[in-house]
């Protein structure tokens, strides 16, 4: 059996050596789209994190039986076409719930506290020149009693709700799929959530229903100094609209760990120097705190083992 891993380096020092027990295991650090077909030829199992497997590729891979997405989102695979071809698609769910929740909370607290400002104030030597023991500038906003709206109320959204509640926030949510119902928190419409909440975090998958869900019209609904966090998927928030809205004087904060195109484009609008004080960007790391990567790798290997044993 030929097993191909298309982008192993995206999982750090991932150890997939156990897959050598099941056949010929070939690992590539990274794979460009134009290299994908040649590298996957003859493979019965393909692992991919972010390498796209679309209809054009899948239609030419006659031996392929299993696609293991080494992530939660499966939008990089034409799942419908794979199903028509009898190709099983497996992902890994639940491995990073606490990790993403922690990253979300970290981004929100940074916006509220503006700790980076105070850190710079001290390290620049300004505090040592001050006549007083303290320096009370911007930030220092309490999370207590703030309204926190969550878009996408799966396992990650619900974990964020629990932590936010412990910190004193008043949580509500909207389910983008309509499937997630939780009587512990009020469910509201997306429009009301955007209008009423001080903090909004996105934990939804990217699909036709969520593509450009947050756009110029949506952003116009935000309260002054609202915090908007996207740790779901790039493409849910229209990045051009965020930039234009901020440049036009809107006063909200935007933090994201995901972009529509990754890595970040060299000419990305978020690099505009005039809006930097309103942005917080991290390079798709929310999923990788603590043991989450080890769990991801173990579960991905289990997906392969289960398929080999059961054909499912």
Helix content: 25-40%
Q: CATH homologous superfamily of the largest domain?
A: NAD(P)-binding Rossmann-like Domain
Integer tally of domains: 2
> Which strand order spans the largest sheet, edge to edge or round the barrel?
7-6-8-9-10-11
Structural shape: elongated
Count of alpha and pi helical runs:
10
Per CATH, the architecture of the largest domain is 3-Layer(aba) Sandwich
Euclidean distance between termini CA atoms: 16 Å
- DSSP strand (E) fraction? 5-15%
- Order of SSEs, N→C? EEHEHEHEHHEHEHEHEHEEH
Protein name: D-3-phosphoglycerate dehydrogenase
Pfam families: 2-Hacid_dh, 2-Hacid_dh_C
Domain D-isomer specific 2-hydroxyacid dehydrogenase NAD-binding: 105-286
EC number: 1.1.1.95
Give a description of the structure:
InterPro entries: D-iso_2-hydroxyacid_DH_PdxB, D-isomer_2_OHA_DH_cat_dom, D-isomer_DH_CS, D-isomer_DH_NAD-bd, NAD(P)-bd_dom_sf. This is D-3-phosphoglycerate dehydrogenase. The chain has 312 residues and is α/β, with parallel strands linked by helices. It folds into two domains: 2-95 and 291-310, Rossmann fold; 96-281, NAD(P)-binding Rossmann-like Domain (Rossmann fold, 3-Layer(aba) Sandwich). It contains ten helices and eleven strands. The protein has helices at 33-40, 55-58, 79-84, 97-113, 115-123, 155-166, 190-196, 216-219, 239-247, 292-310, and strands at 2-5, 24-27, 45-48, 66-69, 88-90, 147-151, 170-174, 199-202, 227-230, 253-256, 279-281. The protein has a six-stranded parallel β-sheet with strand order 7-6-8-9-10-11, with helices on both faces. A five-stranded parallel β-sheet has the order 2-1-3-4-5. Helix 4 (97-113) packs across helix 6. The protein is elongated and about 70 Å long.
